[in-house]
Amino acid sequence: MVTNKSRCSYCGRVLHKQVSEKYFVCSLKCKSLIKNTEYIISVDSIVFDLNNYKWNKVEDLSQKAQINKFDFISSVRRLIYFQEKLRAKDIKEINQKSLISKVKK
Ligand SMILES: [Zn+2]
Known about the structure:
mainly alpha; binds zinc ion
């Protein structure tokens, strides 16, 4: 995974304050979640597979998966900001209303 020092490695939000010396994370919650590599890989795979090349709203996709909302949108941000496998329709920060799609290869 690409590390991006301006964003939390777990939730992908802009990092205003770092809470760990070892990880780039925004909160103690993200600090504990970032250690769960297998969970992250499996969630990223599920979230990526729910997407296609048309625009879908994050909250609509989220309803199709048994993943809590925070973990789901965190995965969306990782797939957009770090892995560049998904893209957003506009340049605002990703939220539940954002329209996202797979990146065309
Ligand atoms: Zn975070």
